[in-house]
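Fig. S4 source data, part A: sequence.
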Amino acid sequence: MKKRISGLIVITLVLFMANTICAAENSPPKVGGVLPEIELLKPNNSADLKYLGLPGGGFLKVNQIKAKVVIIEIFSMYCPYCQAEAPNVNRLYALIEGNHALKDKIKIIGIGIGNSQFETDIFKKKYTIAFPLTPDADYKLHKIMGEVRTPYFIAVKLNGGKSPEVIYSRLGALENNDLFLAQIVKSAGLK
């Protein structure tokens, strides 16, 4: 009887540890941690490539973007919250681009979870998105990012060749762009 109970305890502990490890692998990037290494499809238009400071074709890693900070919006074209947030994110983009001290230091990209290139292009056109959007039709990036709900915002500080440091990670609308931007500037040590 004692062997059976001991065996059950061991099995329970093994299952608990396996579940804990899987949960940790599927958690969103945490502030103070590093952004998981992801490869994004490069934009297919010259304006987006120029905005990111990249040559055309192939894939890109976030730390290749010519900026000090990259704000990543994880969205889906089918998400009503993402659709409602699109005008606010456009205002954030305009706020950054209109500030000469920040426009070359902070860039925004969007990852369309479960969206094809066709779908991200529709979203970009419908909501007049000025920053690059990249598809994640097979949910590969979504899984790496912890299978977050949408919209989800992550801001990372680029450290040269090192892994990008997460300085912001949160589900939901940005709300006040001025406060959000001030927080990003302070967290990244920009001025």
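Fig. S4 source data, part B ends here. Strands lie at 39-41, 59-61, 69-75, 106-113, 133-136, 152-157, 165-171.
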